[in-house]
Design brief:
- The complex is a heterodimer of chains A (334) and B (510).
- Chain A is an all-alpha fold and 334 residues long.
- Chain A has one domain: ABC transporter involved in vitamin B12 uptake, BtuC (Orthogonal Bundle), CATH 1.10.3470.
- In chain A, 77% of the residues lie in helices and 1% in strands.
- A two-stranded antiparallel ribbon of chain A has the order 1-2.
- In chain A, a hairpin with a 2-residue loop joins strand 1 and strand 2.
- In chain A, helix 6 runs antiparallel to helix 12, helix 10 crosses helix 12 and helix 13 packs across helix 14.
- The radius of gyration of chain A is 21 Å and the shape is globular.
- Chain B is an alpha/beta fold and 510 residues long.
- Chain B has 2 domains: 235 residues, Rossmann fold; 238 residues, Rossmann fold (3-Layer(aba) Sandwich).
- In chain B, 31% of the residues lie in helices and 26% in strands.
- Chain B contains 17 helices and 24 strands.
- In chain B, the strands form 6 sheets. Chain B has a 6-stranded mixed sheet, sandwiched between helices. Chain B has a 6-stranded mixed sheet with strand order 18-21-22-15-23-24, sandwiched between helices. A 4-stranded antiparallel sheet of chain B has the order 2-1-4-5, covered by helices on one side.
- In chain B, helix 15 links the parallel strand 21 and strand 22.
- The chains are: A mainly alpha (334), B alpha/beta (510).
- The interface between A and B is large, with 37 and 43 residues.
- Bound molecules: adenosine-5'-triphosphate and magnesium ion (MG).
- Adenosine-5'-triphosphate (ATP) binds next to strand 2, helix 1 and helix 14 of chain B.
- The site of magnesium ion (MG) has 6 residues of chain B, from helix 1.
């Protein structure tokens, strides 16, 4: 028998080498290969691409998407979807800025209150999403579409559609453009959060339960997992991370903006799926998802350098998303 | 039925490899017209793989098939069906959100001018269901039916239209005696009409009832074939061929001492079909619950675990009444339920085997503390339990869906055993499990009872009820039709109560 097994591995299925390669690619995704190819193409077409400050730029620009993509991933793993991440960023931004600017004297207390208010309102959105999905069994697609509209409306209403100024300088100097130990602060935050998400996903019961609920909610329930709690936790974590991203973004642009973050919905789903997260739940690896974010970051940076128009960029991102989803289906069918 | 006539189907040197596994290795067989050809083998022997290749679900790695002397290879089950090969697969292929009728006509709803017409469908559907003795509402959603009813719908669907070759992969696995007998009679009739049948089963007694020829597979290899002249009724011989070992004693019974009441049901009413059931289960005994499809036996187990709504009466665990039961709460009170439907309630198929075994039981298994998982310990625990219930292959990192049906069923058992519970409710625990593995499951149940646990065995498999139970409740129409103990547990007495003849507690001689 063991000899058979060896023989089996040696010459997998009918197609031999080709299909074996193809299977490998499906397993890890085409992503690493595509990424390398893309980097080479950009580097050849535009030498500035590989310059140190451009690479740092890519890092700085990707931080916000990274946080939101990890957030989205947690929800996707549960076989749900959060369309409200973009609107949450906008609302969090406006609330944070309004709070900070309304605290007399600015300073540290303004910053703390502003951050707390921003996180609070973000978590509130997550709570509503989670509770309605878990207890009322409304598809997350519908619920988060609804909260998107509510949050966007609230952000516009509160800001009168104009940027909210009056943010303490210290806030944007530290959390927006600050540097610590030679690294941009937002990047440090994102790395720390990524480590935390890794620990939650792979080393905690909650992480396991998230995968289990997405894999088969009925089986999870029969196995004694409190499915509703897991769903609510996932939506809360998602909104919390999204709020964090919104706060950092607010520091970066030094004002509260109701138009911030609309592109994150599409991009976060694209990056997560590109990184092999299944839309059907229960499958996805954090490492690859981070690679998915890098992919999108490099793609838009490269296109910017090459002066590709933003219309064309949108088109390209759309094609990438559809290809990623198609690949997801192929993998599922294998 | 002997050689002179040309075989309808000839399979030559079929091989199928998966990464790391050879599921079929150079297997050949021939099926004569009108022959019922039984495929026999342990879990993971390659039976389902063989029929998936025949039915066009997967291509072989090498080898070929000839239908009526012509080489064929089907790209899809549909193509196979058009060529006269109809298949009922082991894993149900029904759409849970559609109705029974819609499922029966899935993908071939008659159209008129491009629009679906439903005229005449109910009559056709009714006819198809009557053929297999399925008593289900045509407009019921398939997902709301018990597994046995779903299986009948699946069979009815496979039998629609005409076929030269009918392939049935463990069709009776989750059926009771009455439905099984009806199906076997139908297979016999079709065979007499000249239809060839490939039939997979783990129930050896069915071979004697309908089989003409048996092919035995082991680890993907052909290990023997028995024809009409051989003794295909000799179960011991078959088991030996299948496993390469002498058959073990199937039903163990170590000395047990009955203790106090663990679980008591008083006038329990529960959705959808329990209408006033009073039962008690004590420490250190195995109590069977028998009954036909629709008798409510499965719902009793589900209700105790919070999976069916309790609408009246009481559930008492260890002396305290529990209301608004949820699985989480039941587990905490020491009651564990082993679901019968591995695909729907048992496994997260895309997750690896180890994660399925520790699913929801990280804490109880002692591999997580304060919400943090000890991954090394988790792997070790999963490995130990894979060994304990003998899941093969033993690679715990493989996705659950890549394991054979019987091995998936064993994973559900392994998980329940991680809980140190006092009450164990098994719902059809041996569905799709091979003879040896059955013996393993029974041994586990016996061990539990001996260790002073209350064991409940809900089953449609009469021999297993008779072989394992200290006491038996027979249910009919949502009520207890008979309560039998010791000597009174006989095939006759259980069967008699299936149809509701009210033999009551007088039969018990304590
Ligand atoms: N898609 C797959 N990828 C990898 N291995 C597979 C795949 N499908 C089946 N196998 C392996 O092939 C072997 C044969 O499986 P198969 O389902 O044919 O068994 P079986 O005889 O039908 O068993 P059972 O009685 O449990 O249904 C098993 O070891 C199984 O793990
Ligand atoms: Mg099988």
């Amino acid at each position: 028998m063991s000899a058979d097994i060896v023989a089996g591995t040696a010459q997998t299925t009918a197609g031999g080498l080709h299909s074996r390669l193809f299977n490998r690619l499906l397993e890890f995704g085409l992503l690493p290969v595509l990424l390398v190819v893309m980097v080479v193409v950009f580097a050849v077409a535009e030498p500035r691409f590989l310059a140190m400050d451009n690479l740092e730029n890519i890092g700085r620009q990707s931080v916000y998407l990274l946080l939101i993509t990890m957030a989205q991933m947690l929800v996707l793993l549960c076989a749900e979807l959060d369309l409200s991440v973009g609107a949450t960023v906008a609302l969090v931004s406006v609330i944070t800025a309004l709070t900070m600017s309304s605290v007399a004297g600015g300073g540290t207390s303004a910053i703390i209150l502003g951050v707390a208010a921003g996180l609070g309102v973000g978590l509130l959105v997550g709570l509503v999403n989670g509770v309605v999905v878990a207890y009322l069994k409304v598809p997350s697609f519908m619920v988060t579409l609804g909260t998107t509209s509510v949050a966007t409306g609230a952000a516009l209403l509160l800001s009168n559609g104009a940027p909210v100024t009056g943010i303490p300088l210290a806030f944007s100097d530290t959390w927006g453009t600050g540097v610590f130990l030679g690294l941009p602060v937002p990047i440090i935050v994102a790395v720390l959060v990524a480590v935390a998400v890794y620990v939650v996903l792979y080393w905690t019961t909650l992480g396991r339960n998230i995968y289990a609920v997405g894999g088969n909610a009925d089986a999870a329930k029969v196995a004694g997992i409190r499915v509703n709690w897991v769903l609510i936790s996932a939506f809360l974590l998602c909104s919390g991370l999204t709020a964090l991203s919104g706060i950092l973004l607010t520091a970066r642009v030094a004002s509260g903006e109701a138009t911030l973050g609309t592109s994150f919905v599409l991009l976060s789903i694209a990056a997560a799926v590109l990184g092999g997260t299944s839309l059907f739940g229960g499958e996805g690896r954090l490492g690859l998802v981070i690679l998915g974010v890098v992919f999108i970051g490099v793609l838009s940076n490269g296109m910017n350098l090459l002066r590709v128009s933003s219309y064309v960029q949108q088109l390209v991102i759309g094609v990438v998303l559809i290809s990623a989803v198609a690949l997801d289906r192929l993998r599922a069918r294998r | 039925m002997t050689e002179p006539c040309e075989p309808l189907l000839r399979v030559e040197n079929l091989t199928r490899r998966f990464p790391g596994v050879v599921a079929l290795n150079d297997v050949s067989l021939a099926v004569a017209p009108g022959e019922v050809h039984v495929l026999l083998g342990e879990n993971g022997a390659g039976k389902s793989t063989l029929i998936k290749i025949l039915a066009g679900v997967q291509p072989p790695s090498s080898g070929q098939m000839m239908l009526e002397g012509r080489p064929v290879s089907f790209a899809s089950p549909r193509e196979a069906k058009e060529a006269g090969v109809s298949t009922v697969f082991q894993e149900l292929s029904l759409v849970p959100t559609l109705t029974v009728t819609e499922n029966l006509f899935l993908g071939r709803l008659p159209t008129r001018g491009g629009l679906v017409t439903r005229r005449g469908l109910p009559a056709l559907a009714k006819e198809a269901l009557d053929r297999v003795g399925a008593e289900v509402r045509l407009d019921a959603r398939v997902g709301s039916l018990p597994r046995s009813a779903q299986q009948l719908v699946e069979i009815a669907k496979g039998l629609m239209g005409s076929a030269k070759l009918l392939i049935l992969d463990e069709p009776t696995a989750s059926l009771g005696d009455r439905e099984s007998d009806q199906l076997l009679a139908l297979v016999k009739k079709l065979s007499a009409e000249g239809v060839s049948v490939i039939y997979i089963t783990h129930r050896l007694k069915e071979i004697a009832q309908i089989g003409h020829r048996v092919t035995v597979l082991r680890d993907g290899n052909y290990v023997g074939g028995l024809g009409p002249d051989d003794e295909i009724h000799d179960n011991n011989r078959l088991v030996e061929l299948m496993t390469g070992r002498k058959p073990e004693k199937l039903y163990p019974r170590s000395p047990r001492s009955t203790g106090e009441e663990r679980l008591v049901l008083q006038e329990l009413h529960a959705a959808p079909d329990v209408n006033g059931v009073t039962m008690e289960f004590r420490a250190g005994e195995i109590v069977g619950i028998a009954g036909l499809l629709g008798s409510g036996k499965s719902s009793v187990g589900q209700a105790c675990f919070g999976l069916s709504r309790v609408t009246g009466g009481k559930v008492v665990i260890d002396g305290t009444e529990v209301t608004r039961i949820t699985p989480t709460m039941a587990l905490r009170r020491g009651l564990v339920y082993y679901p019968s439907d591995r695909k729907r309630q048992g496994l997260a198929l895309v997750r690896p085997m180890y994660a399925n075994i520790t699913l929801g039981s990280l804490g109880p298994a002692g591999v997580a503390r304060f919400g943090m998982v000890n991954r090394r310990k988790e792997q070790a625990t999963a490995r130990a339990h894979v060994k304990r219930v003998n899941i093969r292959p033993g690679d715990v990192n493989r996705r659950a869906e890549l394991f054979s049906g019987g091995n998936q069923q064993k994973a559900v058992l392994a998980r329940g055993l991680l809980h140190d519970a006092d009450i164990h409710i098994f719902d059809e625990p041996t569905v799709g499990i091979d003879v040896n593995a059955k013996a393993d499951v029974y041994r586990v149940m016996d061990d539990l009872a001996q260790a002073g646990k209350a064991v409940v065995l809900i089953s449609s498999d009469l021999p297993e009820i008779l072989g394992m139970s200290d006491r038996v409740y027979v249910m009919h129409d949502g009520r207890v039709a008979a309560h039998l103990e010791g000597e009174a547990i006989t095939e006759g007495s259980v069967l008699a109560s299936f149809f509701g003849s009210k033999t009551n507690d007088r039969e018990i001689k304590v």
